[in-house]
Specification:
With 341 residues, this protein is mainly alpha-helical. It contains 15 helices and 4 strands. The radius of gyration is 25 Å and the shape is elongated.
Length: 341
């Protein structure tokens, strides 16, 4: 267990120092508390002067009755507990992914799409070459501009489960490299040595060419884009607490505004993307597919399926997770701390 302390020096500056790395035989809250006590005793620090504590979201840490947080609070009630904000934001994204069936299904396919495109040097080189030729053609046709930092060579990387900023990058690149990715998958379909590999390629291309997949792609792209500034701010080593709190409230407000006024803009963006890539556009006034109506127990329109079951539910779930994990109490505590220092 790594122990890091943060304190205010004589000049009123917040200083953070690595204190110790302690081996613990068990990860129970009692064993962790004993390890902290021994380290504090070694460095002649008093637990009674502790004014804050922060861990990850594991139950042995933040449990209300027997967690490490609770054990310290029983001994020293002023030791306020604040869950790491950067980790909480990760948990917000994880909760949305695992709770909503459409988002969960989307990310499952996303990983399956990325994997064959970069699973070998041959395919990685192929997608880079295809994307390079496509960009050159677009530049020659005047469709895109050139300049420093624009239209650089890129690749499609597998997202990291513990860094949801990488999911945003993957979603952005998939949208931008759509034609190159589908071409690589079609090459796998033709040149694949095994029937299983070719069969998966067929399924992935068919999934990508559905309106529902594109709709969720654009929805996730927007939502992850909303929380990206907050994610970057929370991961900075020298972060401005008040700025982070401002960004937090801005994310909540942006989500509420998007839920209220963002439907038409999102639908237009999806339709434009589908037209550009020869994907059939779903009529919102038509009946939803039988598989969807059967699951709902009655006939519903595509509008209800996309607007209510996907758009509203995903945005509401993300908004609720933000409200639950970034409570006003924690934000107020950090605000007071920042103003006091």
């Amino acid at each position: 267990m790594a122990i890091v302390i943060r304190f205010v020096n004589k000049d009123g500056q917040i200083i953070e120092r690595f204190l110790a790395l302690v081996h613990v035989k068990k990860t129970t809250s009692v064993c962790l508390k004993e390890a902290i006590d021994s380290v504090f005793a070694k460095f002649k620090l008093s637990l009674s002067r502790l004014r804050g504590q922060g861990y990850d979201g594991a139950s042995n840490m933040r449990g209300e009755c027997n967690g490490l947080k609770a054990l310290i609070l029983k001994e020293n009630s002023p030791a306020w507990y604040v869950h790491c904000f950067a980790h909480q934001l990760q948990l917000v994204c994880v909760a949305v992914c695992k709770t909503n069936q459409y988002v969960c299904d989307f990310f499952s396919y996303l990983i399956s799409i990325v994997t064959p495109c970069g699973s070998s040097c041959k395919r990685a080189d192929m997608i880079r070459l295809i994307e390079h030729d496509r960009l050159v053609e677009m530049i020659e046709n005047g469709e895109i501009g050139t300049g420093r930092g624009q239209n650089q060579e890129t690749s499609l990387k597998r997202p990291c489960d513990t860094r949801w900023g990488s999911h945003y990058v993957t979603v952005i690149r998939l949208a931008n490299m759509w034609q190159s990715v589908t071409e690589v998958l079609e090459n796998v379909l033709v040149d694949g040595e095994e029937y299983e590999t070719r069969g998966k390629a067929i399924g992935l291309v068919q999934k990508m060419e559905t309106f529902e997949f594109v709709f969720i792609l654009m929805l996730i792209k927007h939502l992850l884009g909303v929380i990206k500034p907050l994610s970057c701010a929370l991961q900075q080593r020298d972060q401005d607490i008040l700025n982070a709190i401002f960004l937090m409230e801005n994310v909540k407000e942006s989500l509420r505004s998007f839920r209220e006024f963002g439907w038409d803009t999102l639908l237009q963006e999806v339709n434009d993307f589908c037209r550009a890539n020869d994907i059939s556009i779903t009529n919102m006034d038509d009946d939803a597919p039988k598989r969807i109506s059967k699951r709902n127990g009655s006939n519903i329109k595509n509008y209800h399926h996309y607007r209510v079951e996907i758009f509203c539910q995903v945005v509401d779930l993300l908004t609720q997770e933000m409200e639950n994990r970034f409570s006003e109490a924690s934000a107020d505590l950090l605000s007071w701390n920042a103003l006091w220092t």
